[in-house]
Specification:
single chain; alpha/beta; Rossmann fold; Alpha-Beta Plaits; 4 domains; 6-stranded parallel β-sheet; 15 helices
């Protein structure tokens, strides 16, 4: 697949590395030679310097024969991305995607307009990150969660603390215990992240302290799973947001529409805090101070808050603030961490949920490099593996026999199936049928092979 990326910023560079490792022929264009040089030293990509909406540059990049054009320049007006994407489409690129920074563009009527203009997908990384934060403030027992088919199936990630009831229990024993407590509900442990390794578990795999356990269940069975894990959802009534970044402001505005007892936003810049206090709804209290100062956080009443969301522009400050908040008794802490090397470190230090714009954005875009039967792709916290939802095409290889008789990749697992109005957990005897919606968990090495089963 020939892919052209416009913009060698954080998101563009991460996508270039990911897609080149997946075997794509990747060309990156940018107007800054330093950014291109840094990317060239880290990834096997072709780089071209020049004006981002230059027709000559787009020609030289190969838009006439490209399969995918991704406009992710973050440094100039986002209209440059829209113009570049339109030009790439007119020059012959099959599908084009553009990064934006205006939420109004995502309104249904406006998305249709951009579709008519030839742009296949608009994405707003900060909005996606805010969506993730709000979701995790709702699902507080897990470190990450996602729903399939409007919640008929749910995939949740649970971290095993030192008092977790299933430590040293085998997967088969855990499954049997659930069946005894809630017969017929169905559940499958589809992965375990242990240190830097992601395991596709066997029945005799034992759970260990600090494991991140990925469990797929019917919606009705999730409450019993939480009881077996010793987890409870926390009622979030007071939220403190650390950092007046775009994500922080957007999250505060959206929380203000909910019936919460208190929302407080803290930013180190006094002038910015003053401006935000005028801009944000009355439900949000804005103060200025250094989030790295624990005495200041105590003065602002951090011990009284149920959740802390740290989205300042510094990874270290976000991690430190969340660790300190946890020690002060805050039940739920969420940190924005953009350095991928820090993500696992933050989780090991006790941060409940890590938000990373690059991974979230890559999930949305990676779908366009697979077959048209993929409904969506998403990375889950704590692992580099991907969760995919397919709609099964008639005649697809996956329909030819029961799962146990198919040579399905060992680094992937089919977790659940939605068939009409029914949902169920997949087992060896399950026979996938055309038009089923299927939830798949796959390590990067298996994604392309998995895709072949659904074409």
């Amino acid at each position: 697949m020939k892919i052209i990326i416009e913009g060698a910023g954080q998101v563009g560079s991460h996508l270039a590395k990911l897609l080149s490792m997946e075997g794509g022929e990747v060309t990156v264009i940018d107007d800054d030679p330093k950014r291109l040089a840094a990317l060239s030293s880290a990834a096997d990509v072709v780089t071209l310097e020049g004006g981002l909406s230059s027709i000559d540059l787009l020609h030289r990049a190969g838009c006439a024969k490209a399969d995918l054009f991704i406009a992710v320049n973050p440094y100039q007006s986002q209209t440059v991305n829209i113009v570049s994407a339109q030009l790439a489409k007119r020059l012959g690129t099959k599908r084009v995607i553009a990064r934006i920074d205006d939420e109004d563009y995502l309104l249904p009527e406006n998305k249709l307009m951009f579709k008519d203009m030839g742009i296949d997908l608009l994405f707003y990384p900060e909005k996606i990150a805010s969506d993730e934060i709000l979701s995790m403030l709702r699902h507080t027992a897990s470190t990450d969660a996602m729903d399939f088919a409007n919640g008929k199936l749910r995939l949740a990630v649970f971290k095993l603390d030192d008092d977790a009831p299933l430590l040293d229990m085998k997967v088969a024993e855990f499954t049997a215990a659930l069946q005894e407590k809630a017969p017929g509900e169905g559940m499958r442990v589809i992965a375990i992240a242990r240190g830097s390794e992601t395991l596709i578990p066997k029945f005799d795999t034992k759970f260990k302290y600090n494991d991140m356990v990925y469990i797929l269940s019917r919606r009705e069975g999730m409450s019993e799973i939480m009881r077996l894990l010793g987890k409870d959802d926390i009622r979030i009534r007071k939220v403190m947001i650390l950092g007046g970044s775009e994500i922080g402001v957007m999250t505060a505005e959206r929380l203000a529409k909910q019936d919460l007892d208190e929302i407080k936003l803290i930013d180190i810049d006094k002038e910015k805090a003053r401006d935000l206090s005028e801009k944000l709804p009355d439900e949000v209290t804005v103060v200025s101070g250094d989030i790295r100062n624990s005495d200041f956080l105590v003065e602002e009443g951090i011990r009284e808050f149920d959740a802390v969301v740290s989205v300042a522009g510094n990874d270290e400050a976000n991690i430190l603030a969340c660790v300190v908040s946890k020690r002060f008794g805050v039940s739920r802490v969420i940190a924005q961490v953009e350095n991928l090397e820090y993500v696992r470190l933050a989780e090991e230090m006790g941060v409940d949920t890590v938000i990373n714009k690059k991974l979230i954005t890559a999930s949305r875009i990676f779908r366009f490099t697979l077959s048209d039967k993929v409904r969506f792709v998403r990375y889950m916290s704590g692992t580099d593996a991907e969760v995919l939802e397919y709609t099964v095409a008639p005649g697809a290889r996956i329909t030819k026999d029961s799962l146990k008789n198919l040579d399905f990749p060992s680094d992937a697992i089919i977790g659940g199936v939605i068939r009409g109005g029914d949902s169920f957990i997949a087992v060896g005897d399950t026979h996938i049928e055309p038009y089923d919606r299927v939830a798949v968990f796959a390590l990067p090495s298996a994604v392309k092979d998995v895709d072949l089963f659904f074409k």
